[in-house]
Amino acid sequence: STGIVAATPFPAEYDREYVAPVSLGTPAQELNLIFDTGSSDLWVFSTSMPAAQVAGQKLYNPSGSSTSAVLWGHTWSIQYGDGSRSSGTVVNELVTIGGISYASQALEIANGVSAQFSQDPASSGLLGLGFSILNTVIPTSQKTWFDNVLPTLAAPVFTVDLKRAAPGTYTFGAIDASSYAGKIEYTPIDNSNGFWRLQASGYQVGTSPFQPTTIDAIADTGTTLLMLPAAIVKAYYAQVPGSQLHASYGAYTFPCSAKLPSFTFGIGRYRGVIPGAFVSYGRIDATTCYGGIQDQGNLPFSIFGDILMKAQVVVFDAGRTRIGFAAK
Ligand SMILES: O=C(Cc1ccccc1)Nn1cnc2ccccc21
Question: The pTM is what?
Answer without folding.
Answer: 0.98
